[in-house]
Design brief:
Strand content: under 5%
Strand order of the largest sheet: 1-2
Distance between the termini: 29 Å
Order of helices and strands: HEEHHHHHHHHHHHEEHHHH
Structural class: mainly alpha
Helix content: 55-70%
Length: about 375
């Protein structure tokens, strides 16, 4: 597990190097990109892309799938998620690239998309990265298809922010061909028509947390809509939600609820447009996490909405004018420490199995390399 200690160390050292006094940027075609985020993206790509196929519970299974790319692609119409098989076909058949090379490519795509999101929407990159690691890194190193779909959903999110509905639909359609669970992200475009007051934000939170009460009545509906392939795994207790995850989620939502800045729109004080969207994301994440108590597979649906935590938690600290510099530093330290602690406690014996990290050249199970 030393590699994860090294990752946190590099992120902290890199932040102090690149953001010493002021943020350091490079400009490409008029767009500013944080040098620190680029550095962090490289670190994440190397750690995720150079892992052995035994790191991540699904990684080794996808090695078998990669070796049978031609057979799976031949299913054609019978496979609604043919986009991922088509991508594998390009690498396996036409480029003749082995499975480890394919993993590296997926890691690069996922790291670049998340790096772009953090660069564009998070004011404090270090806190955003720590929240990302806490909530998503394990999934990024195991759920190859779903994280590829999430990367496309990030593209869809950016298109929604730019009010480009056609491109939004294209990104969502592509994501659906990778992993059809991303269908839960489809209504996101409508959120840009909503701006919340703090009281309305409280009501949204109460509705989400109340899922602890009404989940027995809602779960059958969601199960009916879920893909049939998840039925056998639905009540596997290995997927049961960790109560610590709920506690952390609730604490971060409450922090955002009470401290996120509000703006006067002429009638009422409301959260900004983006803050409203990110806050609703956080509450949707909490909703699906609670629903997964009844059906463990529903936790997969929450991952698309982790973007709310990654952006809004650091932005709440950064934009809050009521906190002085020392208070912000203290809150930031507490959140980052909580993320580190949560990550290391969570990965020990976790079903996603990333705790026993090996590079691909260290592992005896290397195979399916074309």
């Amino acid at each position: 597990m030393y590699i994860y200690y090294l990752l946190f160390f590099l992120l902290i050292v890199g932040y102090n190097i690149y953001n010493n006094g002021s943020k350091s940027f490079i400009t490409i075609k008029g767009n500013k990109y944080s040098k620190y985020v680029i550095f962090a993206t490289v670190c994440l790509t190397l750690i995720m892309g150079l892992r052995a196929e035994t790191v991540g519970s699904d990684t080794e299974q996808y090695a078998v799938r990669y070796a049978n790319t031609l057979a799976r692609f031949a299913l054609g119409r019978e496979n609604p998620e043919i986009g991922f098989d088509a991508l594998q076909l390009v690498f396996y058949q036409f480029l003749n690239i082995g499975y480890n090379g394919f993993i590296f490519f997926i890691a690069l795509v996922c790291s670049l998309s998340m790096g772009y999101f953090i660069n564009k929407y998070a004011k404090d990159e270090l806190t955003a990265l720590f929240v990302f690691i806490m909530l998503l890194l394990s999934m990024y190193m195991s759920g190859i298809r779903q994280c590829t779909a999430l990367s496309l959903c990030i593209g869809a999110f950016v298109m929604a922010d730019k009010r480009k509905p056609l491109l939004y639909i294209i990104f969502m359609a592509l994501a659906y061909t990778i992993h059809n669970s991303c269908i839960v992200f489809l209504p996101v475009y409508l959120l840009w028509y909503i701006r919340l007051t703090r009281f309305q934000a409280l009501l949204v939170f109460l509705f989400s947390i109340s899922a602890l009460i009404y989940r027995p009545y809602v779960t059958p509906i969601i199960e009916y809509l879920a893909p049939a392939k998840y039925e056998d795994m639905a009540f596997n207790m290995n997927y049961a939600i960790n109560p610590i995850v709920l506690a952390v989620s609730v604490s971060m939502i409450l922090f955002a609820l009470f401290f996120v800045p509000v703006e006067d729109d002429g009638k009422k004080k409301k959260l900004s447009q983006l803050d409203s969207v990110f806050y609703i994301f956080m509450c949707i994440y909490l909703f699906f996490q609670i629903m997964s108590i009844s059906n463990g597979q529903l936790w997969r649906l929450s991952f698309y909405y982790t973007l709310g935590f990654i952006a809004l938690v650091p932005n709440t600290i950064w934009n809050n004018k009521k906190m002085d510099k020392s208070s912000k530093s203290l809150v930031r330290f507490i959140i980052c420490f909580m993320c580190i602690l949560h990550f290391f406690i969570g990965i020990r014996g976790d079903i996603l199995q990333i705790d026993d990290y090996k590079f691909f050249w260290e592992d005896v199970h290397i195979g399916y390399n074309g």
